[in-house]
Request: fold
Amino acid sequence: KNQVEQSPQSLIILEGKNCTLQCNYTVSPFSNLRWYKQDTGRGPVSLTIMTFSENTKSNGRYTATLDADTKQSSLHITASQLSDSASYICVVSAIGGGGNKLTFGTGTQLKVEL
Amino acid sequence: NAGVMQNPRHLVRRRGQEARLRCSPMKGHSHVYWYRQLPEEGLKFMVYLQKENIIDESGMPKERFSAEFPKEGPSILRIQQVVRGDSAAYFCASSPSLAEGAGELFFGEGSRLTVL
Reply:
């Protein structure tokens, strides 16, 4: 069964600090891995998409890494801001389909405080 | 260029009533997906549609739920005879092509259904 597990479930950090969120998956056959940011009461917004051959991808202060051998990914947030407070969702796509072949993690709830 | 538009944003229904959720994809997008998000759970795929066709409805409950994407107008997710367990956020997403893994997927803001 395809699964995506994220850790930690929730995290509180001070503004300006860095943090790293983890994602482990068992989706097969693997196509790509995405990280989304979901603000409370809003829809998910894409941060990065990585294919099998990509090890790292950055989007501003967000850097995602992928280790396809160990089936692990991380999302590193640098110099956090209050606006980074949101749920961060790891999503893995299987080969052979579109949005109907996505497996979603339950997200890491990040809170950035002053 | 407007994003994916969903309405209503919030909907309250009593048990046994019908709920209709609408989704207008981004301009130029012909692939529409519906997902359901329960509290403390990840999004779950429900149905995948292209214009006038249901491509994959493997995630949709067999009874009471239906979806359509007519030639003209928005995609509609219809829930008949709602029950309390249908209370959830329903998200629509669209993509421009069937690139592997749907390529870039754009989500709407969701419709939050509360069943009393």
About this structure: The first strand of chain A starts at residue 4 and ends at 7. The mean pLDDT of chain A is 94. Chain A touches chain B through 26 residues (CB under 8 Å).
